[in-house]
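Try this one yourself first.
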């Protein structure tokens, strides 16, 4: 049956999509799963956060792979995949991916180019994690069209119910029209400082709006400067601050994701 494909998606910027994609991915690898991380963001933040400091100098990235499929000249399987020391594989991205948004618009089967690629990789892995960019453009639609499960990170410091509703409607539309397998795994509350009333109010508001409709993961990711440091450190929270609260929260969340 092959890998389960998870897509971390929210058009709101800075809600910890990248840190969560890496932490869940490496969390799954630490649980013995074979994991492929795919950077679907032209900012290349996932690539850089895993310690590949010069993404723009990489020869083969997601953009090269997608171009190959569009031109009907697919690259050999495994092209461009990097093996990271923390036990995951990574298909990197860089700025070239930004041109893909435009290219895809005029491409046949434009919503399913990424799916075509991932279908060729599915047997090699138990989980594939897609880190989306903060928009609902063609690349994010491609990620949703390829995914089985969507994890929606929501920042406990800022909540836009309107934005969340727009995202949920987009997911429902993709499910109806292109990918009947798609479902929402849950809302993941991130960067929460639960000592503040503000964070408590947001958690309560989310439960008020979504209990009975959508799962809200029990494990909330705390706000911590140690987590913010991981991107520059080029390693995951499990190595950067192994006994800290963020590592513990992501490890517990990973188990919640596995339980399904
Ligand atoms: N638990 C946390 N506590 C404190 N800071 C965090 C935490 N998680 C992530 N951050 C920081 O918040 C910022 C945004 O995180 P991240 O890059 O993962 O978000 P994103 O949603 O992927 O961003 P973008 O929308 O730009 O792709 C980063 O500087 C990151 O280091």
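Now uncover the answer:
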């Amino acid at each position: 049956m092959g890998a389960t494909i998870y897509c971390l998606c929210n058009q709101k910027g800075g809600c910890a999509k990248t840190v969560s994609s890496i932490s869940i991915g490496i969390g799954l690898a630490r649980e013995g799963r074979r994991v492929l991380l795919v950077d679907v963001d032209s900012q290349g933040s996932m690539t850089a956060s895993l310690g590949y400091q010069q993404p723009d100098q990489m020869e083969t990235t997601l953009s090269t792979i997608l171009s190959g499929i569009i031109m009907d000249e697919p690259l050999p399987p495994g092209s461009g995949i990097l093996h990271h020391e923390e036990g995951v594989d990574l298909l990197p991205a860089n700025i070239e991916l930004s041109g893909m948004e435009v290219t895809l618009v005029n491409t046949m089967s434009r919503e399913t180019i990424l799916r075509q690629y991932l279908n060729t990789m599915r047997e090699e892995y138990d989980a594939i994690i897609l880190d989306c960019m903060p928009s609902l453009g063609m690349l994010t639609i491609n990620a949703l069209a390829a995914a089985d499960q969507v994890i929606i990170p929501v920042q406990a410091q800022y909540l836009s119910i309107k934005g969340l509703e727009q995202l949920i409607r987009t997911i429902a539309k993709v499910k109806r029209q292109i990918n009947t397998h798609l479902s929402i795994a849950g809302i993941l509350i991130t960067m929460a400082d639960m000592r503040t009333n503000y964070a408590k109010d947001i958690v309560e508001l989310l439960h008020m709006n979504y209990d009975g409709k959508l799962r809200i993961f029990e494990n909330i990711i705390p706000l911590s400067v140690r987590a913010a440091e991981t991107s520059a450190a080029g390693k995951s929270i499990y190595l950067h601050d192994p006994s800290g609260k963020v590592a513990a929260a992501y490890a517990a969340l990973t188990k919640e994701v596995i339980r399904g």
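Discussion: The domain at 4-259 is CATH 3.40.50.300 (Rossmann fold). The chain has a mean pLDDT of 95.
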